[in-house]
Amino acid sequence: MCRNIRTLFNFDPPATDDEVRDAALQFVRKLSGTTRPAQRNEEAFNHAVERIAAAARELLDSMETSGRPRNREEEAAKARARAAVRFA
Q1: What is the pLDDT of residue 88?
Q2: Alpha-carbon gap, residue 24 to 48, rounded angstroms
Q3: What is the rounded CA–CA span in Å between residue 82 and residue 25?
Q4: Considering the domain boundaries, does residue 77 fall inside one?
Q5: At 11, is the secondary structure helix, strand, or coil?
Q6: pTM of the model
Q7: Of 1, 42, 49, 70, which is least packed with CB atoms within 10 Å of its CB?
Q8: Total domain count for the chain?
Q9: What is the DSSP letter of 69?
Q10: What is the pLDDT of residues 14-34, one digit of tens each?
Q11: What is the longest distance spanned by two Cα atoms in the chain?
Q12: Neighbour-count burial for 46-57, b at 16+ CB within 10 Å, e otherwise
């Protein structure tokens, strides 16, 4: 999985549309093998990003959990700690 795609479910505040679109963009980039499509493929690329973002938003909005929402700052601190151990 792309390292830039982050878990977006069960956060307080919930994931923004920009965060969902950024994850969709990373996913399409991974699938297509390019960060910037050729001009003739740009429309298909952007269409895929929008469709995947819509599907991801629908998924996030329909999921339920009994767990308490995660805190973004706590999760970021945990990620930094893991990175420090990994790259030390």
Answers
A1: 81
A2: 8
A3: 25
A4: yes
A5: strand
A6: 0.81
A7: 1
A8: 1
A9: P
A10: 999 999 999 999 999 999 999
A11: 46
A12: eebbeebbeebb
Rounded to 5°, the CA angle 6-22-83 comes to 35
Domain assignment of residue 2, yes or no: no
DSSP, collapsed to helix, strand or coil, labels residue 41 as helix
8 close to 60: Cβ distance less than 8 angstroms: yes
Give the Cα-Cα-Cα angle 75, 86, 74 (nearest 5 degrees).
10
Residue 70 lies in a domain: yes
Q: How far apart are CA 31 and CA 8, in angstroms?
A: 20
Handedness of CA 12, 78, 59, 67 (dihedral sign): negative
Q: Which residues pair with 11 in a beta bridge?
A: 70
Provide the residue range defining the domain that includes 63.
17-87
Residues 6+ apart with CB under 8 A from 34: none
Give me 29's structure tokens.
Answer: 């980039």
